[in-house]
Amino acid sequence: xxxQQGLWLAVFCMAGALSAASAADKGQSFDLQALHKVQAxxxxxxxxxxxxxxxxxxxxxxxxxxxxxxxxLVPYAGGTPYKLIDTPDKSEWAPQFSPDGKTIAFLSExxxxxxxxxxxxxxxxxxxxxxxxxxGVLEFDWAPDSKRLVxxxxxxxxxxxAAGTAAPVVVNRFKYQEDWVGYLTGQxxxxxIVDVVQKTTVQITRGEQDFWLPAWSPDGRWIAVVSKDxxxxxxxLNTDVFIMPPVEGGALKRISTFDGTDVDPDWAxxPAWSPDxxxxxxxxxxESKWIYYAPWQLTVANIHTGDVREVARIDxxxxxxxxSADSVHVVAxxxxxxxxxxxxxxxxxxxxxxxxxGPKFAYGxxxxxxxxxxxxxxxxxxxxxxxxxxxxxxxxxxxxDWLRGYSLAKTEAFDFESDGHMIGGLIVYxxxxxxxxxxxxxxxxxxxxxxxxxxxxxADWQIYAASGYIxxxxxxxxxxxxxxxxxxxxxxxxxxxDSKDIIAGVQYLAGKGIIDKTRLGxxxxxxxxxxxxxxxxxxxxxxxxxxxxxxxxxxxxxxxxQYAREYELELGTPWHNxxxxxxxxxxxxxxxxxxxxxLYQCAEKDLNVPCLGAEQMYQALKSLGTDTELVIYPxxxxxxxxxxxxxxxxxxxxxxxxxYLKKISx
Length: 666
Hints:
Helix content: 10-25%
CATH architecture of the domain at 404-662: 3-Layer(aba) Sandwich
Shape: globular
Number of strands: 41
CATH superfamily of the domain at 404-662: Alpha/Beta hydrolase fold, catalytic domain
CATH class of the domain at 404-662: Alpha Beta
Radius of gyration: 25 Å
Distance between the termini: 54 Å
């Protein structure tokens, strides 16, 4: 495989960018009202014969101020998608065909508000709830007999007393909280099996051990699952792949051998069985200290011989591997620079073949039947839709074709040099872009930290561009898509070289006469909010900033968010490595150097990056007399889900940027 083939995206042609932008179709601008019309298509599941695709679609119900999802079906050969389940008052998601192709299992909201397993025939006649577990179902997989399902659920949570008073929170674990879950007290994630017909449930694992991502073998003999049982499981990332018979108290057999991360549960990529039930494939990372910096690589194991081997190791990330029908090839997503594609890997020769290519971002896929493949994919001007993969690639869904009536912003890739490194980015022009003018620009900073901006539809970028801004997304050192060395350049040194790369991007585009250097804004969410703090504490170029769900005083975050383990792996402990914590906390301790007017935002129930991070920076700038404001979104976690809050965030961002970059007041 020639990795350089993916780097054609990096060629920057300014003349092409300008001509493409000037040729934009005249139509309605993408605005805040259009934001709510975008439908989010979910990851597909193919019927066993490959003839049907089931998926969920989420949309914003503005009147009820909620996001709702329903189950849809579409023929793989093409045809009109149709809604299988239509329940306007609740959501359904994560549909999965039974092995006999007759039934679809999915998750939905029960009467008590928990997520439970439901089934519906492919004909869509009768929906049945088949589980009723106190903490709700987390994930599931079918048995090959189509009569049972294995699922995980929390067990052991403290219960309220007879008067309804919540029990005191008692924690004794190192990792004691998790966003969307809350405090981790006595509960553990355990596997259960439910009989679809009888609706009887049996818990098959017990003890002080968590289980994730169960996958039932095609021959029915085993369930593969991810767990940890080495040392203090809260302090390390040494997850392993196990198999066990599908019975209560079945013995666990360790399959993986790597002393590090074999399948991080957060990747939502279960170990996958070969059709002959002899092999497993999964994603392994590096040793624990490299956390999310090391690329996710393919590992194949033969459960009979015990042979475990690395396959097609390249300096890039793979995602969600699945076996082909021949039990020799594996299909997986492969992340390259600003793009992610579907690939096919021969596990014997290790040859990699790209099945998709171009400026696209593949997010999920499934394969079944005679290697029918369907992919969930986006590009610069198309929200995620489903496509068949092959020589006759076909778009299967059109949930967002209403966008054809809109004048969308044009996106181009560009590259520049920073400190001896080639840095890539994307630039989005206003729909009515005029090359003879310079424009105010917004530099959006991505989360992660190890992530990247790719060729995918960004609704907020379209809104900013339609409001007269050039939008720039740079992938500085620390981003994914360019290998291990590029990603770990910010290891234990957040905000140093990546800030330099952002500033170098400003100089490059200003030197080309594309942006007005006197009217620049920046901002981001999560690590993007953190990097915003680092950038404005490093340089005074930006006149306005929006730091969302970020932090700066990492000494204050230790023990307050869910990342104590990751801090200790990367930075050490504060009492032994104070210099490291001070190094990555410089925006807080050098707040007096910040002159940028900064809007801070956070989500009230966020345990990923709690409000403390935004509150501390807001308080510091307020004390110093620097223009600042703090917005807190009630009841929300790390990702905002309430439609009015999603709109409010973008509206406030625009208002803030307009005030300082266009001198427009509300």
